[in-house]
Amino acid sequence: MTGKTQKRREALRAALIEAAERRIADSGFRGLTARDLAKEVGCAVGAIYTIFRDMDALAAAVNARTTARLEQAVAIALAGETDGDARRQLVLLGQTYFGFVLDNPRLWSAIFELGYRGEGDDLKPEAEHARLIGHVARPLERLLPDMEAARRLLVARSLFAAVHGIVSLGQQSRFMPVPPSEVSAQIAFIIEAFCDGAVRRRQGEREA
Amino acid sequence: MTGKTQKRREALRAALIEAAERRIADSGFRGLTARDLAKEVGCAVGAIYTIFRDMDALAAAVNARTTARLEQAVAIALAGETDGDARRQLVLLGQTYFGFVLDNPRLWSAIFELGYRGEGDDLKPEAEHARLIGHVARPLERLLPDMEAARRLLVARSLFAAVHGIVSLGQQSRFMPVPPSEVSAQIAFIIEAFCDGAVRRRQGEREA
DNA sequence: CATGGAAATGAACGTCGTTCAAGGATTATT
DNA sequence: AATAATCCTTGAACGACGTTCATTTCCATG
Known about the structure:
The structure is a homodimer.
Chain A: H1 4-27, H2 34-41, H3 45-48, H4 55-79, H5 86-103, H6 105-113, H7 126-143, H8 149-171, H9 180-207
The first copy, chain A, binds a DNA duplex through α1 and α3.
């Protein structure tokens, strides 16, 4: 019957992440405190540190969960439209990203409010990020067929970053506030302009 | 000789902002503490609160200074190239933005790490932001002459946001790290693609 | 020079993340 | 089943943080 403590640890870990997520979701990243959390899950403050190195590691775990949910939302949105043209898919992708941010503003902000992570960390969000970029790269594959894969990944990354920038500045009430519908239009505009420009540039290269 | 205290207050204010800026520049936003700051400028901790409502207000003052310097850098870069075509100017603008971020990474990050500002604040960064967007809108004026000014401001804003996104994700070592030269290339790429797409779309509208 | 009011002081307060000696639980041994 | 050995959890304690406020110090004025 080896592993009774282990079960308890796993349960506590899950409870901690869930409670922390709830707290971040409706009080923001700074509203996450060790004492409140311990009270909410019914454990001692020290217990948190038997599972996570520090509070940042706990926040990182919540962020990983958020990123996974975002990736899932994107995957679901794209599932129903595999046959449409690339432009429409990319726009849909951008709108889904924006929609997710509108639905989970504080959880999404927490991803970027967390400072630089140390190196000795067991968390690997890179895989989730790669899958996210993959969702962008796939439509690009049809739009720019004869581009080398590595280069296409970089293009996908910059397109993603561009949309991210629009959403990011759109969320900040300072920096010229803009209504959501306008942000949505800006996303569509930049994606389509980007696509047009990219294929045109590619065709120009071919002729030369 | 009325106003000796006032002079001292102004000197203290300047010293506080300067010291806070130094501290943020080489220790990051979180490295700014009231006690260290007081020790550095040689005043009591309470003195800070006779000039700033709280530490966030001080950070906001530093951020305003940073934004002003960014705007100045952009203005200088554009001053020597008023006659070039719009695309080149916009790319130059993006590179200047990126260069500024490379030179002042922590000061720039502080702008976005500061949480939501209260309403009863005497600081108005909006003017500086408007001037920044103005530098983007001016070249666009030549690129899209028959677009209404308000719409062009929105386009300028999304182009700025797109470049900001690329720089922003480029600065985060997580999220697929990319060398500066590649970030620079991505900026040029997205700006030119954006311009191509925008004018093409505009011409298409005209024909229809 | 005296004096009234404004401004600076720094000890004190409450809260934060984090630690660690002490105590309790779980497993291994007889 | 009882004891020993090991691990784990606990929550009071620590240092540092932002912020406040009774006290002291200073300056402009009569």
